[in-house]
Amino acid sequence: MNDSLEKLTRLFLKFPGIGERQAKRFAYFILSESQSYVDTLSKELVRARGVAHTCEQCLRVFEGDEGLCSICADPSRDQSTIIVVEKSQDIEAFNRTDYHGLFFILGGLIPIIQKNVLEGTNVKKLEERIQKEKDSLTELILAFPLTPNGEHTDSVIRELLAPIKNGLTITSLGRGLSTGAELEYADAASLEASLKKRE
Q: What digits encode the pLDDT tens for the residues 107-132?
């Protein structure tokens, strides 16, 4: 029992925002639930993972056929603007606003203490996409949480893209968001204000 508990706890610790105590609660919950519940959960995890793909253009995780996600494949969307966000969940927040452009998933923030700024993120792929779409792209909106790492990521990306931006306007969300706020939890009104006040 203890071995199973420890293994499950270590697996749950990989979940974002989950600490030791919460991970252990999840592990106890799974071990005390009925076999039918655990079987259903296992099947759904395998099924969901089997139909999940990463969009070739924005790198968002989506459910469907391989290739482009529904946002990138939609020709009616504004092709001149891209919002760069940390993770796939952040796109859901912008879907509650009037924004109708495209997205790019950075895949993480760049920690202040990290020496290799290209490690662990999709910065290189962002550079490649900008080079590829430079004729149609007019604005890149950096939309990261207002945390030290978020602001550091913003400044690093501006610096890295400076040599290739060729007239591309790079803006950041305005201060409609609270300092330290995660985008996925922001309300639509705050996001609207942030988009309008971008600088």
A: 999 988 877 777 788 999 999 999 99
Q: What is the mean pLDDT of the chain?
A: 87
* Buried/exposed 64-74: b ≥16 CB within 10 Å, e otherwise: eeeebbebbee
Q: Residue 27, Cα to own-chain centre: how many angstroms?
A: 27
Burial class (CB within 10 angstroms; exposed 0-12, middle 13-18, buried 19+) of 125: middle
Look at residues 177, 182, 191 and name the one whose alpha carbon lies nearest to residue 98: 191
- Residue whose tokens read 């009925």: 34
* Three-state DSSP state, 89: helix
- Report d(CA 187, CA 199) in Å as an integer: 20
Q: What is the pLDDT of residues 149-167, one digit of tens each?
A: 999 999 999 999 988 888 8
Neighbours of 109 (CB within 10 A): 22
Q: Which amino acid is at 177?
A: L
What pLDDT was estimated at residue 97?
87
Query: Residue 126 corresponds to which tokens in the numbers above?
Result: 């962002």
**CB burial class (10 A; 0-12, 13-18, 19+) of residue 20?**
exposed
